[in-house]
Every structure is written in structure tokens, then in C-alpha cells.
Amino acid sequence: MHLLMKVTDRLANLLMIISIILAAAMMLHVSLDVILSQFIAEPLPGTVEIVSGYYMVGLVFLPLAFVELKNEHIHVDVLHSLLPARGKTILDVLALALSTIYLALMTYRTWFDALEKYEVGEYSMGMFSVALWPGRFFVPIGCAILTVALLLKLIRRPFTDADMQSEPSDMTAGGTT
Predict the structure, then answer these.
(1) Beta-carbon contacts of residue 96 (< 8 Å; ≥ 6 apart)
(2) How far apart are alpha carbons 73 and 13 in whole angstroms?
(3) Could you tell me if 170 and 177 are in contact, meaning their C-beta atoms sit under 8 angstroms apart?
């Protein structure tokens, strides 16, 4: 179990690094497109397709497991904070179980969608042709690692709540550092 947790954590970190690289590449790509559009009236061809088919999809789906393992997803715990310890455990287990099932189904479905797009060789239709099918694999990869992370948290949650605590923030109660 410890080995699986370590591998999942490393994969989540790797996907986060890839998403950071995608963010930097997108900033450079879009900046270059704007500069070329303004100064030589010739934007980079395929910018919209590449940004929407690769950069944005990767930025949304690849870091999901990293964010989950750091317990930094948005959560509202008004009701949760009022419950006794056993009630919190039951609610956490239920939420983790439902999330794991949902993400497993999403992984399954998007994997076959990505394979279908690969088989047909999905390309954008426009002035500049961009292969879109590789970006389709970001969704099932991100969802798969998130599913594993949720499953590991689900298995451990009845015994400890350590996986449910986010790291302390640098923010004070007033919202300033």
C-alpha cells in the first residue's frame, strides 16, 4: 500500500510538472502570437487550436491528482465541521466512494473516446491543420491518477483522517500574509 501511495504521489507530481511546462509554453505561444499579430500582422497559425486542444486540456486535467493529494480542491465544510468524528468519517467515506466511482467511469469513457480519436486521426478543420487526438489523452490520464489517489484515500479514511487535512496556509484569518 505504501509503495502504491508513493508511486501515485510521484505520478501526480510528474503530471503537475508537465502542466507547469504546458502553462509556460502557452504563455510563450500566446505572447508570440500577439506580438506577431501586432507588429507584422501575421499571427501564428493554429494558435487557437493548440491552446484549446492541448494547453488548456492539460492544465485542467493533469494536475487533478496533485491537487487532491494536497487536499486543495475547493470544499465547503459547514455541515462537516458540525458533525462528530464518526459522522465526519462516514461522510468522508461516502464522498470518497462516490468520487472514486464517478472518476473511474469518467476515466473509462474518456479513454475510449481518446482511442477513437486516435484511430480516426482527429485534426482541426481550419486554415492550419493541427492533430488534436494527442491532447485527448490528457483527460483519461489525469482522471486515472486522480481515481487511484481517491481510492487510496478511501481505503485509509476509516482508520485515519490524516489524508483529509490540507497543509497549513500562509494566509492569516484576515486574508493577508
Answers:
(1) 150, 153, 154, 157
(2) 16
(3) yes
What the block records as the C-alpha cell of 22 is 504546458
Classify residue 92: in a domain, yes or no. yes
Instruction: Decide: 54 and 32 in contact? Cβ < 8 Å.
Output: no
**Cα 22 from Cα 29, distance rounded (Å):** 10
For the stretch 30-83, pLDDT in tens is 999 999 999 988 888 888 889 999 999 999 999 999 999 998 888 778 888 888
pTM of the full structure: 0.84
Tell me how many domains the chain contains: 1
Q: Distance between CA 113 and CA 137 in Å, rounded? A: 9
The strand pairing partners of 131, in sequence order, are: 123
- Name which of 165, 62, 146 is nearest 99 in CA terms: 146
Range of the domain at 42: 2-164
Residue 175 lies in a domain: no
Reference 21, options 55, 70, 60, 47; nearest CA is 55
**Is 168 exposed, middle or buried (CB count within 10 Å of its CB: 0-12, 13-18, 19+)?**
exposed
Long-range contacts of 115-121 (CB under 8 A, 24+ apart): none
Per DSSP, the three-state class of 123 is strand
